[in-house]
Amino acid sequence: MTYLKNINPIKVFKIAVGTGLAIFIANISGLNYVSSAGIITLLSIQDTKKSTIKIAVKRLVAFVLAMLISFMVFKTFGFGIIALISYLSVFVSICMAFGLNEGLSPCTVLVTHIMSEKNINFDIVKNEALLMLIGTSVGIILNMYMPRNLKHIREYQAKIENEIKNILNILVRFLNDESGRTSLEYDFLSLEKIIDSAISKSYIDKDNILSYDLKYFIDYMEMRKSQIMVLRYIFEQGKAIKTRPEQARDIADLIYNLIPKLHESNNAINALMDLYLVKEKMKNSDLPKTRVEFEDRAILYSMVVNFEQFLEIKREFASNLTENEKNIFWNR
Q1: Residues 278, 311: contact at Cβ < 8 Å?
Q2: Rounded mean pLDDT of 62-71?
C-alpha cells in the first residue's frame, strides 16, 4: 500500500490519454511515424505548468537546430551510421552548451525517421515538424489543468501558527511556574518537517499559477521556519534556569498578550514596542541578591533578546511585502 501513495493518478491519466490523443491526431492528419507524436506528448507532461512550457520551448528550438544540422550532415555523408555519429556529435554538443538537453531524445528520434527515408526534403521535414508540434501541443494543453495546493498551503499555515502558539503557551507556563515542575519540551523536529513539506507544496503551486507569483507563501514559510529555530534556541536557554525571578513573570505576560495576536497579517511592531518596555524594566530592576538569581536573570535577559529576534523576523517579512501582496494575501 505504501507504493500506491507514490502514484499520481492525474498524471497517469494525462500521459495515457495524451499519448493516445497525439497518435490519433497525427494519424488522421496523414502523417508518418505517428507513434513519435505520442512519445513526445509523454515526455512533455511535467509536474508543473511552467516546467512543461519551458521544456516545450527548448524542444522546439532544439528541433530547428536538429533539422539544420541533419540537413548538412546527410547531404555531406549520406544516410548511414557515419552521418548519424556526425549529427550526434554536433547536436549533443550544442544542446549541452546551451541547456537544450530536453530536446536530445525526441529530436534524435525524428532525425532517425529521415535516415529511414534516406531523403531530406520539405515534405519529410514538414512531417517531423508536425509530429513535434502535435506532441508538444497536446502535452501543454493537458498540463494546463493542475490541481492547486493553495487550500493545503493555507491549512499548513493555520497548523504552523497554532503550533507556534502552543510553543509560546508552554513557555508562558514555564516562566510562571515557581515550583519548577513545568519542563520546556516540544517536538521541534516534527514541526520543521511540516514546514519543509509546506515549502515544497508552495514551490509546486508557484510554478502552476502563471497569472501571479506565489513567492509570498515560500517567503512566509521560510520566515516561520526561522522563527521556530529561534524558539528552539530559547527553549534550550530556558532549561538552564533554576528559579523564577520576578522578571520571568513580566516576560510571561508579554508573551501571553502576544499569543492572540500571532497571525499572518500582524507586523509585530506593537509587540516590539511592548518588548522594549520589558527590557527597560529589566535594566532598571534592583541588582540580584544571590549568584543563582544573577545567573537566572542573565539567562532571562538573553531569552528576551532572542525573543526580540523572533519578532524582528516577522517585522522584516511584513516590511518587505508590497501593498499588492498584502491586498492579495492578507485581505482574504
Answers
A1: no
A2: 92
